């Protein structure tokens, strides 16, 4: 296959489309811009940045060892400790192994507890009369915050602080040219607050360890020794955001899809087993993480062009999830879609470490909403969205109902997978 020189690749149209997709007024529906970007699955945006939107091309790059998870090309790397999300082997592999050893066993036994938490959150709004529920504030936000704080060993009284820090930090994941100077200053202050809080939390668990993830990371056995304090703090910060912010959006986006597709809601109400493929379709159709960043460690030939060594690469996961070359009728929500190899949790060695937990929380929450809300209706469509473009989801999701029935069912369907 003949490569196209970088200098011969058109820049402006893709850059403009991407800028439009990031604009807040298009937050409710960036997909028309993604559809246009898909016409050229790999395209140069500026002197050192490339956009990859095709499903096949994103999948290849996520598994390519010539791609670095660090968003900064090698000449710009800073001598700071990084989270496993942006680390490469061998450091990535060691950090991931340490987290997996402590994380997975704890998560596998949580399904009944998650079900009880969902029941309790909805019970607070049980009503025999018409009412209204903000799915974000009343369910999608407090559920994963409580779960990740319990896993990490964060005291109950600190959950609101922990959640507030995470929500403020997610803005820093967006491209810096979309952030105001005030937002950048606030992010720096928030990072300092989080660092100070985590250092205090680590100190308390060092002197009085418990049966939680943080204590396990500090005192667990590993052939290479425990995680050192700096790596521990950085990893906790990652788990804070990845452990609940993405799940907030997954539950909210799933609720939105169900209410916009009442036939799917009706099916889920009578067939709770539908929730397993349905959540996978939400992850494809309206993923909580829209894009990811990488950089190249070597020249890479792909889709008839060459991405040069040292380039930044934006992987547009949400566009790849609607690639018509991979999915039939990609803009249609199909709750029982088969062969659904979506990119909702990324891929390769950086596949989302919390995927099992996020799936369980979404499956249980969506099943409970379908079962208990009678005649639900969106109060506003589209609802107001958060500022974040990368972790994209509604800021609020008010839903009216004629009745919020009491819970009379057993544990919800679905499984930890």
Which properties best describe this structure?
single chain; alpha+beta; Cytochrome p450; 5-stranded mixed β-sheet; 3-stranded antiparallel β-sheet; 12 strands; about 45% helix
Mind explaining what this structure looks like?
There is one protein chain. This protein has 417 residues and is an alpha+beta fold. It has helices at 12-22, 31-37, 55-62, 91-108, 111-123, 135-140, 142-152, 159-169, 181-207, 213-219, 229-242, 245-260, 262-270, 275-285, 317-320, 355-372; strands at 42-44, 49-52, 67-68, 131-134, 292-296, 300-302, 305-307, 312-315, 373-374, 377-378, 398-401, 403-404. The strands form four sheets. A five-stranded mixed sheet has the order 1-2-8-5-3, with helices on one face. The relative contact order is 0.19. Residues 1-11 have low confidence and may be disordered.
């Amino acid at each position: 296959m003949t490569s196209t020189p970088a200098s011969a690749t058109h820049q402006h149209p893709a850059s403009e489309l991407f800028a439009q997709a990031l604009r807040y007024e298009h937050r409710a529906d960036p997909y028309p811009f993604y559809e246009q970007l898909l016409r050229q699955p790999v395209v140069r945006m500026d002197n050192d940045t490339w956009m990859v939107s095709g499903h096949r091309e994103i999948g290849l790059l996520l598994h390519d060892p010539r791609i670095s998870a660090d968003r900064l090309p090698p000449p710009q790397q800073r001598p700071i400790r990084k989270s496993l999300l942006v680390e490469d082997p061998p450091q990535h592999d060691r950090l991931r192994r340490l987290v997996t050893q402590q994380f997975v066993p704890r998560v596998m036994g949580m399904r009944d507890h998650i079900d009880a938490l969902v029941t309790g959150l909805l019970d607070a709004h049980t009503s025999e009369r018409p009412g209204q529920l903000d799915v974000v504030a009343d369910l999608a936000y407090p559920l994963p915050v409580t779960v990740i704080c319990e896993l990490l060993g964060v005291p109950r009284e600190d959950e609101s602080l922990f959640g507030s820090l995470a929500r403020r930090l997610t803005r820093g994941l967006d491209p810096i040219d979309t952030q105001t100077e005030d937002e950048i200053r606030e992010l720096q202050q928030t990072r300092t607050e989080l660092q100070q809080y985590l250092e205090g939390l680590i100190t308390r668990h060092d002197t009085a360890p418990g049966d939680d993830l943080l204590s396990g990371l500090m005192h667990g056995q590993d052939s290479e020794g425990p995680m050192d304090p700096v790596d521990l703090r950085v990893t906790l910060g990652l788990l804070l955001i990845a452990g609940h912010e993405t799940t907030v959006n997954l539950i909210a986006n799933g609720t939105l899809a169900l209410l916009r597709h009442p036939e799917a809601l009706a099916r889920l109400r009578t067939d709770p087993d539908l929730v397993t493929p349905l959540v996978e379709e939400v992850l494809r159709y309206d993923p909580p993480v829209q894009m990811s960043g990488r950089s190249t460690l070597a020249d890479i030939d792909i889709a008839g062009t060459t991405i040069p060594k040292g380039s930044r690469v934006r992987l547009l996961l949400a566009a790849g999830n609607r690639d018509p070359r991979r999915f039939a009728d990609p803009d249609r929500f199909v709750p029982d879609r088969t062969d659904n190899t979506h990119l909702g949790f990324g891929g390769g060695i950086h596949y989302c470490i919390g995927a099992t937990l996020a799936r369980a929380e979404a499956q249980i929450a969506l099943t409970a909403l379908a079962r208990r809300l009678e005649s639900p209706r969106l109060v506003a469509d589209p609802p107001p969205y958060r500022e974040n473009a990368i972790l994209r989801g509604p800021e609020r999701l008010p839903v009216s109902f004629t009745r919020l029935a009491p819970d009379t069912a057993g544990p919800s369907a679905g499984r930890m997978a």
